[in-house]
Design brief:
Elements (H helix, E strand, L loop, with lengths): L1 H110 L1 H6 L1
Amino acid sequence: MNGAILLIIGLGIGIGIGLVIGALRINAERGKVALLEKQIEEFRAEENRLTSLNEQLKAVTSGMSALSTQAQEAELKRTRAEGEIRTQIENMKLGNENLLRETTKLAGALSNSQTRGKY
């Protein structure tokens, strides 16, 4: 009978130890689950932040593209205007040269008394 009592006591102690170990495992698993849930929340927050940054980057890229197009158009207009100004300057130069020649001829004619008499 002593053996049976010892067996029952051993079983009781074994069951108690099993329950304690089971409770510790459950608590450890709960801690792991909580940690994993926290990590999932952090990943979702990071994903939302990256999505927001991506949208902002698209807006900046779109703005930069528009500015680049405007800069190219402005450069074309500037080039055309510069060409027109050069043409006008060349025309003015030719006009001034013609005016100088005619003025020189007129001055020569006016200095000559015979020619001056005709006028």
